[in-house]
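Whether sequence alone determines local backbone shape is best considered at the level of individual chains. In the encoding step, the backbone of a single protein was reduced to a row of integers, each denoting a local shape. For completeness, the protein is quoted in full, as a sequence line and a line of structure tokens.
***
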Amino acid sequence: MVHVTYTSGPICALTLHEHESYINTLLQLNTPCKVNHLSLSLSLSLSIRIHLYIYIYISLSLIVVVLERMPRRNGVCLWSLYSCAVFCLVAIVNAEDPYRFFTWNVTFGDIYPMGIRQQGILINGQFPGPEIYSVTNDNLIINVFNNLPEPFLISWNGVQQRRNSYEDGVYGTTCPIPPGQNFTYKLQVKDQIGSFYYFPSLGFQKAAGGFGAIKILSRPRIPVPFPDPADDYSILIGDWYTTNHTRLEKIMDLGWRLPFPDGVLINGRGDGGVTYNVEQGKTYRLRISNVGLQNSLNFRIEGHSMTLVEVEGTHTVQTPLSSLDVHVGQSYSVLVTADQPSQDYYIAVSSRFTSQNINTTGIFRYANSVKAVSGTPPPPPNTDITWSLNQARSIRTNLTASGPRPNPQGSYHYGQINISRTIKINGAASIIDRKQRYSVNGVSFVAADTPLKLADYFNISGVFKVGSIPDEPTDKAPYLDTSVMGADFRDFVEIVFENRENIIQSWHLDGYNFFVVGMDGGRWSDKSRNNYNLVDAVSRCTIQVYPKSWTAIYLGLDNVGMWNIRNEFWVRRYLGEQFYLRVYSPVMSPRDEYPLPQNALLCGRAVGKSS
């Protein structure tokens, strides 16, 4: 037992467990710490190391006793083994990746984002929730106490959960946290950098809040392709309903369509509710994530140009932008230099390509500002899809920049790998049993009574069937099923998202980044490959598909697990436009996939099972 005293809060007891994979040390909180936001990796890591050094000292003392009784042989002193033991044990202690600890209390509370009182999901009393600050390879230990009167789950949009889909926080992989109970997520941001966010994944809880930013910085020894900014702001934008999320769920369960959202929020605030303070001549990093429910949003700052530098963990070619389309579920980083006269400027966010327009503003305020904002905010680009499509195509990987590792991002030549399989994904509106549903390749997803990953681990039959969704659209009438597509570990596949509808779709894949090799209007065909970008396509985890268009991605299946593929248009996801990709390795080795976490919640038909 290791006891660590925090600078704010009580003493927390931490138990060290040896992971079955022998490469991770898991730290499980046994008692809650009354700390709003805990991120003490350096001091905690030092404290843990001090205790481990004590254990090493005791162990080495025992080794000394043994060596003193051992003879010398051939003039070689066996004491050399002592030096070797010291070196190895100290190296083990220093090699451990840092830990960051968070204790979150999830409650309902009154919020007024658009001037109307409504019930929101708060984390430690905050809406949005606390930002997660981390560095590549950090271990994040997040103890979530569910004080809602309903089950709760958090998922981590963009965090790849390498070899560990059990922690992904969607119902297909993880049991919900029951009311009044807690669960400790153990995540590692392995080989990742960039801008992401977390959100409630059950039902329509995302419409009540509970989301927050995730910031993963590069390790100090890894160069970043731009100077350190004066400050680093996380900006969460999204459309919003003033109606309670449970009421919205009832409307959808009855088979009716939801009304259009009521407005747009910036960091949980309505029009004019957010101000970002800047100083003349300094450059700032803005991490912009669309955490909304359905609408693509355009982001712009009056009188200022932005420079795109990162997309969902990939450093990009540094492209100047007057405004940026951020589709639902996506995250971007831009640099903005405060190079205008000292006054206030509008930050404008507005919906795109919709029959109804919703918008909001924030304030970009210079120090010693001599003038408040006035007049109308800057208008969005024209509504022609071509402008947005061209912007998306211009986003490319910076091949010479280092990613999470010191090797350049362009050292992985994805365009030279043979494709083993082509999968075509078509999401569409469907009427099933006289109710509004949405489907993928004719299958509308329904959740099973047991998380699919647990059913897979415990070999519980009858929960799902691999191959219950075809690789491409069919002419069959849409139907309900727990759709799971099988795939082999280390395959390299092509996925083509086809959108035959008049709205923008936005698709996300948990557990992976993929290369966006092409997008265009019309129908995809084999000839479309002739125009693929096989050199510097951006690598990301969420991609838009424009109306009556297609988007193609390349994906290396190097992460074993059960992974959710979903439309980020949340009504469509709720009503079936999602499925799971089961990436399978027959080896069943911890080198490919970690075993079931010791603290995993068991529900459904997994109750009472033992690993």
